[in-house]
Inverse folding.
């Protein structure tokens, strides 16, 4: 699994042709792909008289967990019917992931819906194991990727020349690894502010590796 940076056709092809698989989320980086999958999971409108829509076959899995002061329900709906129609290498299944949160303290409700796809066939991964994998991904997303994208402002970069964007990802991962390994500050934002004001100490961190 990967974030939006990895949801690319060449990366998908490389993964499968070197013996791997992929599970991607279709977000703003692939707007047409996201829209195509979204429309498939939407209810059919009234067809033209004399015409009919092809039957849709869906499978669903649901998990409910309580923790961090909230009740969370995840529902994954999966379909294999688009694999021969969507222009994406080695695509086998598409899915809709709904996340429903209820605050146990206030009763406030939040909902999220995201769409994704995978090279894994229905025989290789059923809806419930796929749901569990997407849950593991969100743990990474809320940890490593949040630190990179928000705290280190990776999402705001405009580096596009050559391999500059990949180099920035490597540098950010190195910085996070050093800070977490050495347990210098309780939070990454605190460390970022401190070392921005003390560049000599930041340099010493690398020199002492």
């Amino acid at each position: 699994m990967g974030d939006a940076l990895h949801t690319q056709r060449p990366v998908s092809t490389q993964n499968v042709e070197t013996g791997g698989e992929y599970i991607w989320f279709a977000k703003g980086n692939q707007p047409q792909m996201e829209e195509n999958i979204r429309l498939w999971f939407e209810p059919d409108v009234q067809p033209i008289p004399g015409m009919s829509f092809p039957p849709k076959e869906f499978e669903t899995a649901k998990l409910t967990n309580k923790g961090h002061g909230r009740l969370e329900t995840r529902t994954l709906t999966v379909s294999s019917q688009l694999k021969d129609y969507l222009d994406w290498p080695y695509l086998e299944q598409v899915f809709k992931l709904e996340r429903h949160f209820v605050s146990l303290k206030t009763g406030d409700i939040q909902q999220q819906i995201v769409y994704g796809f995978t090279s894994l066939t229905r025989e290789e991964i059923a809806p419930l194991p796929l749901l569990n994998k997407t849950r593991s991904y969100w743990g990474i997303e809320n940890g490593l990727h949040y630190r990179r994208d928000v705290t280190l402002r990776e999402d705001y970069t405009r580096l596009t020349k050559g391999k500059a964007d990949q180099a920035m990802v490597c540098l950010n991962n190195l910085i996070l690894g050093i800070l977490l390994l050495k347990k210098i500050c309780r939070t990454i934002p605190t460390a970022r502010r401190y070392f921005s004001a003390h560049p000599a100490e930041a340099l010493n961190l690398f020199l002492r590796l």
The chain has a mean pLDDT of 82. The radius of gyration is 21 Å. Residues 149 and 155 are 5 Å apart (CA to CA).
